[in-house]
């Protein structure tokens, strides 16, 4: 009984504290603290990963939160999150913002606020250079992908007359492409870019500019922080206008990078809040 | 408790049912073609293995050891991806435009299984007393004719039970063809699972179908043995 009382007291205390903390807008809390605490990934190539030389977490996501911290005039503190921990960490107040390749979904948007889309990817096609201009060039042909992924479903929806060959994994699908057994390999662009980056004869292949599904990445912030949310969204638009966003993209995903992609999006005010 | 809700309607009607049916069709086609080819090839290799000619015997031993002692999955990849380096370009192009996935699976299954079948047939042949061969040869039969008319008819009959096992193994091994995108039964069951998350139902159905196919093969071979090969019940 005593223990129960003690436990409930602790719970009440935590809830009360969290409630108090939530009452203050994150923007003011960060200003007062002097540091912006951002949750980033540390093992996602291009977005957030540990640089072999400096032993520091670097990447596309990191550069965005660095810019935000600079714009606020505070220091940046990075905390490592995974796809499983990023939302709990944010909701519990351990981090102020999530920049961890997080795709906008309506379910997630019920738990937290997404910023404007700062990276747009989706399912594309890796093909021999110059062979595929539009979806019609792929119709009725053999297309390779890997098993058990949503990629297969998207592909057969977009190309009902094509034969979709599901291989065990992407390296085999790519081998089939090299040997002409399939005319394209389809899955998320970031995976395709990773394959292309490692390919020995990468000049012969390209990612065709056809997207059959959308994966808009947004920065995540706690709900009920309109001031912080407005600041983040305005800063993102500013980065688009002054070319900083494009510069960061080119740095990590430009033609000479390990994951060459094409930037076929611009940052716009695409999120509506009620 | 969050239990798993069984929903058999997913796989008993509609498009998912037809996916499974097309998978069954390809599994049966793949198995039957490979069974016939692997038996014929196995017979040939067994005879080569017992041939009095040295080089022929060595070739057969090499074949047997190589294909029995490498994993089937590796062999499937070898025929599908490895053949690219060996074959001329125009042939590759032609194959790629046709159902090369199915053909590679047949080649791999046939060659792999034929090595086991050859060894089973060889034990069958060895179980026939060697005096029969000597008697046949002294009656004027050539080696090949003695094999054809005296030894093999008895040996194959003795080999029936292990042959059934090899045919059943082949049928089940045909599921590995899905690794190169042949849409056979296991492939389709997996597809149904990834679309509907009803994996238990899909794989239960697939298991039952494999069971039925196996039983049918066993019954068919046994009946063929009783009615055609050995109608008077001789052992």
Layout of secondary structure:
The complex is a heterodimer of chains A (274) and B (235).
Chain A: H1 2-23, H2 26-33, E1 35-40, E2 43-44, E3 48-50, E4 57-58, H3 60-72, E5 75-80, H4 86-91, E6 97-99, E7 113-121, E8 123-128, E9 142-146, H5 150-158, E10 163-167, H6 170-178, E11 184-188, H7 189-198, E12 205-208, E13 215-221, H8 226-241, H9 244-253
Parallel strand pairs in A: 1-5, 1-6, 9-10, 9-11
Antiparallel strand pairs in A: 2-3, 3-4, 7-13, 8-11, 8-12
Chain B: H1 9-12, H2 14-49, H3 54-68, H4 72-86, H5 89-97, H6 100-126, H7 130-138, H8 143-173, H9 185-196, H10 199-229
Helix pairs in contact in B: 2-3, 2-6, 2-8, 2-9, 3-6, 4-6, 6-8, 7-8, 8-10, 9-10
Give a brief description:
The complex is a heterodimer of chains A (274) and B (235). With 274 residues, chain A is α/β, with parallel strands linked by helices.
Features:
heterodimer; A: 274 residues; alpha/beta; D-Maltodextrin-Binding Protein, domain 2; 2 domains; five-stranded mixed beta sheet; three-stranded parallel beta sheet; 9 helices; 23% strand; B: 235 residues; mainly alpha; MetI-like fold; 10 helices; globular
Q: What string gives the helices and strands of chain B in order?
A: HHHHHHHHHH
Q: What integer is the average pLDDT of chain B?
A: 88
Alpha carbon gyration radius of chain B: 21 Å
The major β-sheet of chain B equals:
none
The CATH superfamily of the largest domain in chain A is identified as Periplasmic binding protein-like II
Shape type of chain A: elongated
Which architecture of chain B per CATH? Orthogonal Bundle
Work out the number of β strands of chain A. 13
Q: Helices and strands of chain A: which structural class?
A: alpha/beta
Please state the CA-atom Rg of chain A, rounded to the nearest Å: 22 Å
List the chains of the largest interface with their residue counts.
A-B, 17 and 19 residues
Q: List segments of chain A where confidence is low: pLDDT < 50 over at least 5 consecutive residues.
A: none
